[in-house]
Amino acid sequence: MYKKFEMELAGRTLRVDVGRVAKQANGAVLMHYGDTTVLCTATASEKPREGIDFFPLSVEYNERMYSVGKIPGGFNKREGKASENAVLTCRVIDRPMRPLFPKDYRNDVTLENLVLSVEQDCSPELTAMLGAAIATSISDIPFDGPISTTQVGLVDGEFVFNPTADQKAVSDLALTVASTKEKVIMIEAGANEVPEAQMIEAIFAAHELNQKVIAFIDTIVAECGKPKHSYESCAVPEELFAAIKEIVPPAEMEEAVFTDDKQTREENIRVITDRLAEAFAEKEEWLAVLGEAVYQYQKKTVRKMILKDHKRPDGRAIDEIRPLAAEIDLIPRVHGSAMFTRGQTQICTMTTLAPLSEAQKLDGLDESATTKRYMHHYNFPSYSVGETRPSRGPGRREIGHGALAERALVPVLPSESEFPYAIRTVSETFESNGSTSQASICASSMSLMAAGVPIKTAVAGISAGLVTGETDDDYLVLTDIQGLEDFFGDMDFKVAGTHKGITAIQMDIKIHGLTRPIIEEAIAATKKARTYILDEVMSKAIAEPRKEVGEYAPKIMQIQIDPQKIGDVVGQRGKTINTIIERTGVKIDITDEGNVSICGVDKASMEEAAKLVMIISTDFEAGQVLEGDVVSIKDFGAFVEFAPGKEGMVHISKISKERIDKVEDVLTLGQHVKVVCLGKDKMGRFSFSMKDVAE
User: Fold this and answer.
1) Which of 247, 275, 307 is the last residue of a domain?
2) CA-CA to 617 of 20 to 30 Å: which in 3, 253, 328, 632?
3) Do residue 134 and residue 245 come from a single domain?
4) What range defines the domain where residue 365 resides?
C-alpha cells in the first residue's frame, strides 16, 4: 500500500504518492498536478567522493515525448540530448536546493525528475520543482528543507498563481519564487517592464503561497520522512586554520587579496599556498585539504573586509560600479556589433538578421511553443579567464546565461509585422571577472540598435551582491560584484531592465534565504546602477536604433495578398513560388493571413518578385496591360506567360494590326511582348491582344 496526500493549489489538485514507485531510491514521490505526472527521486552515494572540495549534486529533468502523445523527430526516433528547456529547469531546481545541503557533505547526490504526462495548464517544470524538494525532504539525505516553489503571472494588472497556458500567453510576468519557511531562496523572472514595487509585491505574494505548500510538505515528512543518515564530514580541521594564520597573518592575506587585478591576486595566493605547502610538507593529511583551507581563509578575509571595514577588494565604494566603456561597429561585415566593458569583464555581441523562415523550430512538451524568432547565444571560452581547456560546446552555464539575456531583451523587440526578421545575437566573452551575463545584455541591446532593429528602448543589466553577518540585520548589499565577491559572497542578484521597469531577474544565493529588506535594497541598488549605465554609457555609444538595417543585412519587403490566392502563388507542389525564387534569387515567406515577406540583397530582384506575386494574386480585368514571354506558338495564335504558371492566349487576329498568315512571321519562342487583357474566353483562359496595346 502507498500513501496519498492532496491539497488544492491555485485551483487545481496537487497529489503526492509516497511508497508507490521507485522504492530503492533514498526518497521518491509520484507527483500529480492535474493530469501532469512527474516521478521525482533523490539518491545519495554511501560514501563521500575522494579528492573533491565541493558538494557533488547533479539534477536531471528528463522530458519524454510520450507525455504529450508525440513520437520524437529525427532518424533514431528517441529522445537525445536534453533540450534547452530541460537544462534551464535543472538549473532552477538546483539553485534553491543546493544551499540547504551541509557545506561539508561530499556524498554524490542525484535528483532525477521524469516527466510522464503533461496537461498544458499544469506546468511539469513546477511539478518537478515541488517533487524534487519533497523527495529529498522525506529521504534520509541530510537536507535543511523543505522548500516550495510558486510561479506568478500578471494578467490585466492582477497576479495569477501557477498560471494556465492561456494565462501565460497574455501575461506581463513570468516569475518563479522558491522559499524556505522563513525566507525567499530563489527568484527567476521575465517581465514586460514591470515596475520595481510591483515586482517586490509579486515576489512576496508567491512567498506567502509557498508557506501553505511547505505546511502541506511538513505533514508528508512527519508521516513518511526517514531519519537523516550520518556522514563523514569533510570540513577543514580548525588546527590547520590556526597553523596557517601563524605563517600568514590576517594582515598579509588582506594585502594579497586587496587588488583590482585578478591575475595579480591569483599570483599572490599562489605564492602564499606554495609557502604553506612547504611548511606543511610533513603533514600529508593537511596537504590534502590545503587548497580548500586557503580558499576559506581568503573567503573569511574578504567577507570581514567588506562587512566590518567597508573595504572592497578593488578599493571601490560599496555602491560604485567598475569603470565602464561601450562602443559599436567593432566588427565589419556582420549585421550589427557592440562591445561593453565593465572592469575586467568584456562582452562583444554580434547580431544576425534573417527571414522569418530561419526562426528556430521547437519540438518540446509545451504545445504553444513551436518556434522562436529571437535567439540569444552566449559563449564563455577559457581564454576569457586566462585558462586553457578544450571547448566541448555550450554547458548548462552558457545555456542559462543565454536564456537570461534572451528573456531580458524579448519584451523590447518589435513585433513580426513591424520587423519581419528572425534575429540572432551571439555574445562572445572576451574577458571575465564577474557578471558577464549582465554585460551581455548591455552589449546585445546596443548591437540590436546598431543592426537597425527598432527595439522599443535600451535594456541594461547589473548584478548586486551580499555579505551577511551573524544576524539578519547584519548585512551589506554590494553594487556590481566582481568574480571574487561572487565566489566569497552570499548572493548574485542579477536584474535587467529599462528606465520603465524590470525585464529579467535571476537570483542565486549560498545562504538559507533572504529577508524582504535585503531584496528591496538589492532591487533599489540595481535600479540606480541600471539607470546610470543606460544614461551615461550606453546612450552615448548609440542613443536609438538605426533607421535602416546595415549594408550586409538582408532586406525584406512586405506585401499583402488575398489569403484565397495563396494557393495560386505557391502553385502545384510549390512549382510557381519556386520558379519565382529561381528567377529572382530572393527568399519568400507567406503567412496564412496572406502576408508575403520577400527577402533579398538586390532591390530590383525584390521588386521583380513582388510584381510577379501581385500579378499572380490579382484578378485581371479587361484593359489591364501586362508583359510576358511567348512560350508556345500554334496555328491559331500564341500563348504568353506573364507570370510563373500564368498564361494567356493571343489569337492570330489580335497579334498585329496588319493581316498575317502565320504566327511565326511575327512572333518567336521566348520573345518578350506587351499585351492587354481582353477578359476570359469560353474555356476560362485569359484572352490577350497585342494590337490593342496603347502606344
Assistant:
1) 307
2) 632
3) no
4) 324-412+423-468+475-483+516-540
Name which of 487, 495, 489 is nearest 477 in CA terms: 489
Query: Per this entry, what is the length of the chain?
Result: 695
Other CB atoms within a 10 A radius of the CB of residue 435 amount to: 27
Q: What are residue 32's DSSP bridge partners?
A: 15, 37
* 8 Å CB contact between 613 and 557: no
Whether 317 maps to a domain, the answer reads no
Instruction: Please provide the DSSP assignment of 301-345 as one string.
Output: HHHHHHHTT---TT---TTPPPPEEEEE--SSSSSEEEEEEETTE
Q: What is the pLDDT of residues 443-469, one digit of tens each?
A: 999 999 999 999 999 999 999 999 998
* Residue 659 located in a structural domain: yes
* Per-residue confidence (pLDDT) for residue 158, from 0 to 100: 96
One DSSP character per residue, 237-305 reads: PHHHHHHHHHHS-HHHHHHHH--S-HHHHHHHHHHHHHHHHHHTTT-HHHHHTHHHHHHHHHHHHHHHH
Q: 559's torsion region: left (phi>0), alpha (psi -120 to 50) or beta?
A: beta
Are residues 213 and 252 located together in one domain of the fold?
Answer: no
The band of 85, judged by pLDDT with boundaries at 50, 70 and 90, is: very high
Give the CATH number for residue 645.
2.40.50.140
Q: What is the dihedral of CA 466, 469, 472, 477, to 10 degrees?
A: -20
Q: pLDDT, tens digit, for every residue of 535-573? A: 999 999 999 999 999 888 998 888 888 888 888 788 888
565 and 679 part of one domain: no
Per DSSP, the three-state class of 473 is: coil
Give the neighbor-by-neighbor strand order of the sheet with 345-355: 324-328, 336-342, 345-355, 421-431, 374-379
Burial status of residue 274 (CB atoms within 10 A of its CB: 0-12, 13-18, 19 or more): exposed
CA 96 to chain centre: 19
Q: What's the structural domain count of the chain?
A: 5
Exposure string over 303-332, b if 16+ CB within 10 A, otherwise e: bbbbeeeebbbbebeeeebbebebbbeebe
